[in-house]
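Hello,

Following up on my earlier ticket. Below are the two sequence lines again, exactly as submitted.
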Amino acid sequence: MSLFKARDWWSATLGEGEEFDQGCLCVGDVDNSGTGHDKVVVGSYMGMLRVLSPHSSKAGEGPQSQADHQLLEVQLPHPIIQVEVGKFVSCSDQLHLAVLHPRKLSVYAVSGTAGNVEHGAQYQLKLVYEHNLQRTACNMTSGPFGGVTGHHSVCIQSMDGMLMFFEQESYSFGRFLPGFLLPGPLAYCPRTDNFLTVSSTRQLESYRYETLAVATEAESRQDPELPLKTGGKRLTPDWTVILGEAALDLSVPSFSHASSSICVLGERNLYCFRDNGQIRFMKKLEYNPSCFLPYASVTEGTTNLLLGNHNNMLLVYQDVTLKWAAQLACVPVAVRVANFSELRGVLVTLSSEGHLQCSYLGTDPSFFSTPKVDAREVNYEQLDAEMKTLQRFIREATRTQDILPKADTEEALTVTTTVSSSMDTPSQALIQDIDGLPVPSVTVKVKVKSSCVLQGSKLTISVSSPLAVSQDQFTLEPMGVGSSTVVAFSAFLNGHYPPADLTGDIALSYSSPTELNPKGVPRVHQSRFDLPLALVCISTSPAKSAKHKITVDTNKPPVNLTAVFPEFYEKSEESDGNSLAVQFLSGARVTVLASKTSQRYRVQSESFEDMWLVIKELVQRFEHHFIKQGVKDIRHSFTAPLPLPEYFQTVDHHFQLRVSAQHYQDLLAERAVQFRAIQRRMLTRFKDKTPAPLQNLDTLLDATYHQEEPIDSKADPCVCFPHIDFTWVGRPWHINSRQNIFGNPFFLSVRESDAIPDQLTSGQTPLALPLQYLVVLL
Amino acid sequence: MAAVLDALWEDRDVRFDITAQQMKTRPGEVLIDCLDSIEDTKGNNGDRGRLLVTNLRIIWHSLALPRVNLSVGYNSIINITTRTANSKLRGQTEALYILTKSNNTRFEFIFTNVVPGSPRLFTSVIAVHRAYETSKMYRDLKLRGALIQNKQLRLLPQEQVYDKINGVWNLSSDQGNLGTFFITNVRIVWHANMNESFNVSIPYLQIVMDYEMEEKPQPLEELTVDQLPDDVEIEPDEQTDAFTAYFADGNKQQDREPIYSEELGLAIEKLKDGFTLQGLWEVMGS
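Thanks for your patience. The regenerated structure is below:
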């Protein structure tokens, strides 16, 4: 419906914070200029009376040009309820202005004197007469009451239902409306000389002027002690029509004598009646109306009317047909049609805040569409880049929840581990010596440097058994940004068998507070360190022959072993660089022989499993050595068939040990139960108040104890042995690091190691399955 | 006089893509509020910008491209309302609607606060605009107003009468009018002694004094200077049609002239050739 808009022809904002309503607007040639052109008269509830003469504002004219549109502005001492233009002065046929105040009716003459220029014209407001009212006025209507010609009388309805009639300068009479509760709109129909109102009984009532004139004098009702005037009749309406709703406005158009109609604007319906109260039509309104005005009869027998509503719309009806609709800038409380010198048929609307607008109906439909902006060139590359960054933000935002901190690109902390190059003196080892060989220890320093605030940090060290550390847990003080802490501990061998792995793990658990989570988000940092080989073995003299041999081939010329294992040559005198022998503190001797001619290294030992650490160390050190020299494509390979029999033998041995360990454990448990049972019996005997003979229970206890002892000593090494074999079983994993055997829970504890290069395992993949199978069996 | 009035365009005009020089506050112009994160929902939806509220106008400019801007003078504002708008940055949100009219073209502006829950945008702009509206008497010429009551000037807030001169003629009509002159710190007011309603209030802002000075003619040699022919051509700035985004009525820049329609008995906008009121209504109204 808002396809068309009312086009602004002239507009003004009247006053500041003034209030206006239905009766505050009227148009007419109030200054009797003789041109017949209308002026707009506006009164406000603040008592400001304005007379304006709108002109169309031409383009280019500044706002100053509007200054001369105002003909008159007068501050009256009382609020203005209604303004009317009419012939209100008896001895004059000129138009005068009637202004209704709550307790006063004033009639003014507006006179203009032309000047040389537009702004030289002066206008004057002269009071012709005024009536002080006994009752508070609500509204008024005017017209040639009683059919007089040439001048207009005024009828004022008071708030308490009295109609007061004024014949120009004199008061005629007053009459109370019957059954009155609240005042409704009031209109005079000159054709039938009737007064119309919509009463609180929600019906349209019509009173003949004659009936009113001869009815009971209103004043007499005021004073019940006074006798009723003779001849006074009870006032009854000429006719009534039930509307069923309160009316906003009432109008009796008089543009043509042929069309006799009375228009009533209800809250939800529009009615049109003939003069005798017969209904002509009724229009149900689909909106909340605010004002209306029958303005013309374009076609004979029809009434054109304007209807404003609270949706800022102004609708044009011809009887019940909607002919046009236009959108206004504000809700109109009063509407008039005015003829100005430049334009006829201008719509004059007034809003309650004082927006006075003279407009005409726009005939260009305005479709709501967003117009394109073409002038600003678009940088597509920049937009593309922005789009990408935004999408990245969105992805990140959807991935991480609010409470979690953003994944930092840089670590919140750095942990650096330094393993001392020399052994501790004195050694911190718990076992002082194994088979006469002193057990060394090495100091490891861990430096924690934080780049954020850390709370509740705990550092945990873990080395694989039988290695041990002097302290495996550290509680760190809360750290600030950029601060660092150093903790030191010693690592040493703490068992009678060689370890499978020389690496140790550091886990640092901490919490970093965020804005949302002041307690901190728990986080873990992990790092690892490598312990020196010298921790678990010492150098010794090479053995010429050994049971188990493994040859490692390389693609690089032979390396002097003294350069690769300097720490093992410190003491020994014979440093030909071709052989190296280490004695594990709790194991076999392992000899490494470097070939003088070929690029081969032989590792040999009496114990198959003990060679692992040396081979691992050898390959690792060779790689370091060559990388330091700038050689990159170093390869190690193992050409001989895999020493599977030895491997299986070890596995079998381990299995045997486990079985016997289990056996001894069971036996031990059995004996322990027996021992405890004897103990219990003896205890009850001892506790008994009447001493009884022990019945050789003490002998039995002693015997059980002696039975237990050897089992204990047998079970002990068996319990230890699995460690050796576990580590050994772990080795196939090293060999088959490419095989995915994570499905086996046993292997989850085994670390992936890059110690043995993959070349060593080339062509050996079929081995993986049976080995794995064996492991599962274990 | 016209030149001087044109010079003060800040509160009168709606301008688009103004230069950095024009964005600066002119003498007497005071920056009242500066709001960051305001979106120009109508013309630059999805673009973050800054809104500057001065005592004469509001300026919005894009933060990314400051040359994308607009300046809305308070005098051009017809109406300010708050309504629900659809913003790319905020979705459905309360927005500030400003309807303006500048050189017979109506523009509509919609501003949205990107930071939720802050009514400062609305309160600030509406309050400053109201202050501008209510202080019109200090700036604008007023003719035949309710200025005088009982022969006394109705003073504006903080206005002081410096002098009252009786017997000043207004020569705008043939016989002239004898009146009284009030000189205040804001304006001068004249009213006819015989008719209080015939008066004029002229703020000093509207007054341009004409001084005539006698000058000694300069020697001719100084006046004639050899003028080298210009070989520089000044190209006009590339015209942008940025303002089209802000038309209050679609793509329509100006209304057609009004005529009286016999059919409706009302004034209407002149129809385009080949159109009839009924045809237009039946197509559009159905």
